Each structure stands twice: as structure tokens, then as C-alpha cells.
TrEMBL record:
Annotated Gene Ontology cellular component terms: mitochondrial inner membrane
Gene Ontology terms describing biological process: mitochondrial electron transport, NADH to ubiquinone
UniProt-listed Enzyme Commission number(s): 7.1.1.2
Protein name (database record): NADH-ubiquinone oxidoreductase chain 2
Residues in NADH:quinone oxidoreductase/Mrp antiporter transmembrane domain copies: 25-82, 84-281
Enzyme type, top EC level: translocase
Catalytic activity reported: a ubiquinone + NADH + 5 H(+)(in) = a ubiquinol + NAD(+) + 4 H(+)(out)
Species for this entry: Maja squinado
InterPro entries: Complex_I_Subunit_2, NADH_UbQ_OxRdtase_chain2, ND/Mrp_TM
Record localization: Mitochondrion inner membrane
Family: Belongs to the complex I subunit 2 family.
GO MF, one example: NADH dehydrogenase (ubiquinone) activity
Transmembrane regions listed in the UniProt entry: 58-80, 86-106, 113-136, 142-162, 193-214, 234-253, 265-286, 313-334
Recorded topology in the membrane: Multi-pass membrane protein
Amino acid sequence: MAILTPTISFLMILILGTSISISSSTWFGAWIGLELNLMSFIPLLAVKMSSLFSEASLKYFLIQALGSTIIIMSSSLFFLFLNLPLFFVLTALLLKLGAAPFYFWFPEVMSGLSWFQVIILMTIQKIAPMILISYISAYSFIIKPLILSSILSALVGAFGGLNNLNLRKILAFSSVNHMSWMLISICISDNMWLIYFCFYSLISSSVVVLFIFYQIHSLSDLLTFKTHSIFSSLSIPLVLLSLGGLPPFTGFLPKWLIIQVMMNSSMYVPLFFLLFSALITLYFYLRLLTPFIVLLNSSTVILSKLNSSPLNFFPLLIVSLNFIGFLVPMPFIFL
């Protein structure tokens, strides 16, 4: 209880910093909000005395401080130029997001975090930079760098997860890949990226919550995971496939919306790279889940048939969120 109190306090300050950043009318106010968000997230990273947590918090602090320095530097150039400072601001925000070509720190920091910290880094910490990017996307010269960053993020997120066996790094590269869809949706409309971000936050959080519930911390825990319930055995594969965007799971719905809009906008080249990367991400998710399903031996299946223990409500609720695509696909398709 003594640990939860400061954790909740820092989490509330973190949300407050995000709120200040996105509601500010000046870049100085947005910078203040980003700094408040940063200084409240560092204690959450270093909540335990461990070399992994300390290394992750130090890396995160240095990268975020570099991004804040670029924003401050660009503010001094607004009196001389117009386009160049906004380009520097975009660079700083992409650095804070961990989007390509500034993704290098994101998997390294993610690999040293706990699951609770992973949820915050993948969801809440992306809100302020994404909304600030949507503000500056009103300038036409920002669109081309955004499209280029989205293509690079799609390729990096797809190929980076192929040779990784660390679950946190796999989720990190998956987040980079999803970032490409959000960046390209910013170029289309604000509503599109908000819809995609809500779906992404819901599905990625559900994956991590299942890992926490089943106490899975590494790939070996995933491969040796055994349960007497067939539903529990299939819950993690189904949620991961939804995160990969396999139709007709929930994760496919926002991608389908963006595909339709990109087709109507004749954005065929970025769409090709996004779809190509989505197939690769599905490949390494299937490669990860194939031994997981094969290792379910026959004795487990027999025991699950004989054992009449009730299903756990919490995993059932988490998995049901990823079956919205089965239940109501038509309203989302024709939205």
C-alpha cells in the first residue's frame, strides 16, 4: 500500500502533464506539459532498485531530454524561418514517439520495463506527441515527412520483430508498426487516427493484461504455459492475432477503415508498404504462436474435458473485446 500511493500520485501527474500539453495554446505550454509528463514517468520507471529498471529509465530520460532540447532550439528559429522550426518540432515529436527513423531507443527501453510500465509507454505516452503532430500536420510541407516516417516505421516494425525472442521487444516493434498506421491516418483526418489509437490501446493493453494474469514474463513462460482449460489455452493466441490485425478480429477494423480511405485518396504506394508490413507482422506472430499451440499436449485436452472447473471471468472479458469484429463488422466497414 505504501508503494501504490506514490505510484498513483505520479500516474495522476503524468496524465496532468499530457492534458496540459494537448490543451496548450502555445508551444511553450506544450513543452511544459511534455516535461511534466517526463518527470513523472521517470519515478514510475525506477520504482524498483534494479539494473534493468535503472538502465531503462536513464535511456528514456536521455532520449526525451534530447527531444525537448530540439523543441526549445526550434522555438528560437521561429523569428527567422517558418518551415524549418516546424520540421525540427516534427523530428523531436517523432523521437519522443519512437517512430522511424528514431526508433532505436524504443525496443531497448521496453525490454527493461515491467508489464505495467509497458502499458503506459505504449498508450498514454503516445497521446501528447501524436496530438501535437496532428496540430502541425495542417501545414502541407509536413505531410511528406509524415508519410515517409510511416513507411519507414512499417518496414522497421515488421522486419525488426522477425528475429526477436523477447516478448517486450516483439511488442515494441509491433508498436512501431502500428505507429505507421497512426501517422498515415493523421495525414488523412484527425478522427481516423483517434479511432485507430483507441483500438490499438484497447488491444495492446488486453495482450499485456493477459500476460500479467497468467504470469508470463518471457518466451519460455509462453511456450511452457499449461492450463486445464481450452479457452485459457487459446486466449493468448487469439488476442495476439487480433493485435496483428488478422481479419475478422477487432484489430482488423481500424486497418480496414484506413485502407478504404487511402484507396479513395489514391495513396497506393504508402498502402502497399503498410499492407506488406502487416503480412510480415502476422508471420512472426504466427511463428510465435505455432509452437505454443503444438505444445498443448493431448493430456491437457483430456483433462480439460474431464475437469468441470468454471471459466475465469477476467480472461473471458479480455478476449471478448477482441471479438467485436466477429459480432458487428458491417457498421465499421461502411462507416
